[in-house]
Structure to design on (238 residues):
């Protein structure tokens, strides 16, 4: 099976891209692959004494007062830069393709939320159970919900822009996200009550990794479509 990038409804003439523009586009698209690799390492390798990636959520690694917060914040900032760069790359190669442009914009918005996450971190379970939740915890939940919406929207528009097996793969990935998202949400209240959550971390990481893999595959598909980069339908936006 093959993939096909939908062509714009109207053809527009534009000057051919310079070698510098082509290299820039490829470099930005490659940032998507690097961003996923970085975040995958973060969620599986970073931990503090007593932390379990199987039973504890990813957010607990950056919670106020944890020893891992000082490492997580700068690495999270790097991830933010990489995923925003990828979104810009998608926008550049989109040309007149509306679905790809929207996908790029959504990825930039998704990545830009990373600038807010350090200020909207949750508190540790014991603090929450003792009634120590603050506005930061409310903001954390709101930000998490917004992030999920942007993820699904980006995947939907990305799937609409690329026909063939990638579209089917995207739909399957969204199904996985919904299924394991439900499993993760079932333990959400237990975190706040400092109750056991034997599989919460695993369910959440499966969800995250499914999206990270989608980014890698999406980037690879765009990088293979040489005509998108070498022969855009219009000049890249300034």
């Amino acid at each position: 099976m093959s993939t096909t990038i939908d062509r714009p409804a109207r053809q527009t003439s534009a000057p051919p891209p310079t070698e510098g523009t082509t290299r820039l586009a490829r470099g930005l698209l490659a940032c998507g692959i690097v961003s996923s690799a970085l975040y995958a390492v973060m969620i599986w390798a970073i931990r503090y004494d007593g932390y379990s990636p199987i039973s504890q959520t990813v957010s607990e690694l950056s919670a106020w007062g944890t020893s891992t917060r000082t490492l997580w914040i700068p690495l999270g900032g790097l991830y933010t830069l990489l995923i925003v760069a990828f979104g810009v790359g998608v926008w550049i190669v989109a040309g007149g393709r509306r679905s790809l442009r929207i996908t790029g914009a959504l990825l930039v918005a998704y990545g830009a939320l990373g600038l807010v996450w350090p200020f909207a971190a949750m508190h540790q379970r014991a603090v929450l159970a003792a009634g120590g939740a603050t506005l930061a915890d409310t903001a954390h939940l709101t930000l998490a919900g917004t992030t999920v919406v942007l993820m699904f929207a980006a995947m939907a528009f990305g799937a609409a822009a690329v026909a063939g097996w990638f579209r089917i793969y995207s739909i399957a990935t969204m199904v996985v996200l919904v299924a394991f998202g439900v499993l993760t949400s079932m333990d959400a209240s237990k975190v706040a009550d400092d109750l056991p959550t034997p599989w919460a971390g695993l369910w959440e990481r499966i969800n995250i990794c499914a999206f990270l893999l989608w980014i890698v595959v999406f980037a690879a598909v765009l990088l293979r479509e040489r005509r998108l980069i070498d022969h855009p339908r219009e000049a890249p936006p300034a």
